[in-house]
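Entry 14: structure prediction run for Galectin. Input pasted below.
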Amino acid sequence: MSPGEKLDPLPDTFILQPPVFHPVVPYVATIFGGLRAGKMVVLQGAVPLNARRFQVDFQCGCSLHPRPDIAIHFNPRFHTTKPHVICNTLRGGRWQAEARWPHLALRKGASFLILFLFGNEEMKVSVNGQHFLHYRYQLPLSRVDTLGIYGGILVTAVGFLNISPFVEGGSEYPVGHPFLLKSPSLEVPCSRALPQGLWPGQVIIVRGLVLPEPKDFTLSLLDDAAHVPVTLRASFADRTLAWVSRWGRKKLILAPFLFYPQRFFEVLLLCQEGELKLALSGQGVGATSLGQQALERLRELRISGSVQLYCVHY
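Run finished. Output tokens:
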């Protein structure tokens, strides 16, 4: 890529926001592209022992005066005899009828992973992998462009993701906790063992950030004979994405090139009967056939190239 060369514009649905690690609370951030059905926000952290309450607000703006509308107000309260969660909507400076959920799934002194999943008509919330509540929108989701986190909470990571295109209907929680976030401490090249090979239903998730002057990115799968049946390769010189066979045969993937300098990316590989389905930044872009026996013989995942890795999960 030559200096000054203009990049093709990315469709809004492909733009993923880099995760934020250890933000200071109160924390207010713009949500890139706003909220829409099919997005997820992940919150990882812990509840302090002296916490009374905290709130996560999905706001329509970030002004202080006048106070912006709040489409979704998620408010766990620990200071009452029966801890609970309140959800509400602030419209025109007035709170609407609140919804209350008892049996709070969060505990003082305990860590948590909260997933906010946004559908067409309602938001679903899971806590530590278990569904907790759903809340119907009272304001259009399209108006939300700001995330606000306030109160007694320690946040280790905030992630902004898209629903996996492999989930039927796109309205269910991801399978196998693929949204788990980690600090950006993975070395590149990166190698991970696949002791049992790959079986139908397994998903490999790779998340990271493309470096400022990238050359290439490769994700290779090695079998028990140290052969490389298939490699996913992104070339920044000609901005192409391709499957490469063990014999070096290249099959171009006809999809927008989504690996851009200093952009966050997500690669998902779903194993199905005899094939691997590929999704980039929440968009399905095709598959490659290997045969089920070849998938079961895979023993190693290798990642290299001009990227910083946040997460490798399978």
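Notes: Residues 25 and 87 are 20 Å apart (CA to CA). Will compare against the previous run tomorrow.
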